[in-house]
Specification:
globular; single chain; binds iron/sulfur cluster; TIM Barrel; alpha/beta; about 400 residues
């Protein structure tokens, strides 16, 4: 493992994301398979990973419990824990009371102080090494800026009290939103976590976001470096081009080596689900091996070939509220596959589970506005259903 710097702290260049841990039956909403997940954490720790990222809502709230327990067997000063305040899924009810919305709807009302202390307790820690506002975007920025709610002043006080060592934020917002937020709070935040990979460099304007963060003199923590697995399985024709240069390298390794070439990138988070993934990824970060200019050019071509695909990262933010129980990310993956040249005959609605049938979408709009990638989900469902009906 090699190491990088965030705000004067030396951290592993590869960080362990705890949003896609293995579950008891392999489905995303099932409880975490603690035995398998602990094996992954033990492998990560013993192979030099020091940065562990979680959030209030990951695995329905179980991720914080799990990672706190999993790391507690190791000395506290040998790992760094990052968690996030869920202001992007909150509404202010007055008198300091916050309600939860979106995927957190149904949680009892709370306060900023109660949420933060709940997180410390769940993670079994006295302090967070890194603490982030979760997803500062065009919608949530009003909540984070709301002086009456006072999220930021509260967190500043926790930093002064030593309960937060380094303050940052994550964002799926635009470069303009990130720039304005950093300008408003110049000098307060020490790092920014964004979705960054060679496809989103073009598709989601990640280049502009990276440059804005660098302009403010901050380091970037990367999420979705392999785009929820999308860049681990690229179109066959594109993979052949990569294999012609490095026959033994996987598509995921190419994506991670592309990130290694960016000087302002500090930690690259990977939400690893299997032991095989962490074995491969820790090997990729054994020492820096950034892509060459020619290799970056090759990946730019791969990205071009994928720009027409729907940019779902399989985060599953949208699935909980779907009244039809549709497996939205899996349907979108199938749609992308069909668009990618998979034989349409392989995908017949009659042959797949009800949860995989786009024609069952009733266009209720419950999923609209939730997707961090701004995907118009009902439109995709309708288009795909139309394609399959022909
Ligand atoms: S619009 Fe369709 S996909 Fe979205 S929540 Fe409603 S039924 Fe589900
Ligand atoms: S459609 Fe959007 S919200 Fe749903 S899984 Fe994909 S990226 Fe996440």
């Amino acid at each position: 493992m090699y190491y990088k710097d965030i705000s004067g702290v030396t951290v592993s260049a590869l960080g362990m994301g705890n949003m896609r841990l293995p579950t008891t039956d392999g489905t995303p909403n099932a409880p975490i398979d603690r035995v398998k997940a602990q094996e992954i954490i033990d492998y990560a720790y013993s192979h030099g990973i020091t940065y562990y990222d979680t959030a209030y809502r990951y695995h329905g709230g179980e991720s914080e419990y799990f990672i706190g327990e999993a790391l507690s067997k190791y000395p506290r000063d040998t790992w760094y824990l990052a968690s996030k305040f869920p202001g992007h899924m909150m509404e202010y009810k007055g008198n300091g009371v916050l309600g939860f919305t979106s995927m957190l709807a149904g949680h009892p009302d709370s306060t900023v102080d109660a949420v933060f202390n709940e997180q410390l307790a769940k993670c079994k820690v006295d302090y967070f090494d890194f603490y982030l506002l979760h997803n500062v975007n065009e919608k949530s920025v009003a909540m984070y800026n709301n002086e009456e709610v006072g999220i930021i002043p509260y967190l500043v006080k926790q930093k002064e009290a030593g309960k937060i060592r380094h303050l940052g934020f994550s964002s799926h917002g635009t470069a303009e939103t990130i720039d304005a937020f950093l300008t408003k709070y110049e000098g307060l935040f020490e790092f920014v976590q964004i979705q960054l990979n060679y496809l989103d460099w073009k598709l989601q304007d990640a280049k502009a976001k990276y440059e804005v963060i660098a302009k403010h003199g901050l380091k970037v923590v990367v999420m979705e470096g392999v785009r929820g697995g999308r860049l681990a399985a690229i179109p066959e024709a594109e993979m052949k081009k990569l294999q012609a240069v490095r026959p033994d390298d996987s598509a995921a390794k190419w994506a991670l080596r592309w990130l290694q070439a960016l000087p302002e990138v500090s930690v690259v988070l990977s939400g690893m689900t299997t032991l095989d993934q962490i074995v491969e990824n820790t090997a990729t970060f054994d020492k820096p091996d950034p892509v060459t200019e020619a290799e970056a050019e090759l990946l730019s071509g791969v990205a071009d070939s994928m720009l027409s695909l729907v940019p779902c990262t399989a985060c599953r933010y949208c699935t909980e509220g779907c009244p039809m129980g549709l497996e939205i990310p899996k349907i979108i993956a199938a749609y992308n596959g069909v668009k990618n040249g998979d034989n349409m005959a392989k995908y017949k609605e009659d042959d797949v589970d009800e949860s995989m049938r786009p024609s069952r979408c009733i266009g209720c709009g419950s999923c609209m506005g939730i997707c961090p990638q701004n995907i118009n989900i009902p439109e995709i469902m309708s288009t795909f259903a139309g394609m399959l009906a022909k």
